[in-house]
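Every protein is a chain of amino acids, and every chain bends into a shape of its own. Below is the pair of lines this work produces for a single protein:
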Amino acid sequence: MSQDQINMLVGILLMLMGCVYIHKGYMAFIKGKMWYWQGFLPFTLLSPWICVLPPKENSLIKVKEAMWVHAFFGPIFFFSAVVALSCGADLANLPGTKTVNAGFTYFLPDKTPFIVFTKRNYNVQFPAIVSNSKKLAKLFFGNTVGLKSQDDLTPFSQSSGSYSDAVR
């Protein structure tokens, strides 16, 4: 097999995994469910991306249903789907990352691309995240509430008695 045929096969498999990640993202983001393998810890950490089929009875694959699955794994699976679909399309000689970058940059060619993929060594880079890392850090970790040390967050102070006394 030539390198182009291998790239085509790997690209089709990546696009198939991207479709699986869309389904897993739907299950995590909308329904709050994810499947994981309960066993050896390193495999358990990677298992949400590997377990494709729902668990059967008496198996090591378990279902986790919680609110943190909505918030944490839903976006991660959709991000994984975008990366897998776009890189797989590039390997299959389709405009995958070009289309994703056009969508994320509002079709403006002078903006920093979101995903850069090189076929030669299967390298994925995210220059938009790197160039905006300070803004993202300020957004996620910055002090946006503006509380001062003298601000009182409760309707009573420690010296005035109990909460039930303050409510009466």
About this structure: The radius of gyration is 23 Å.
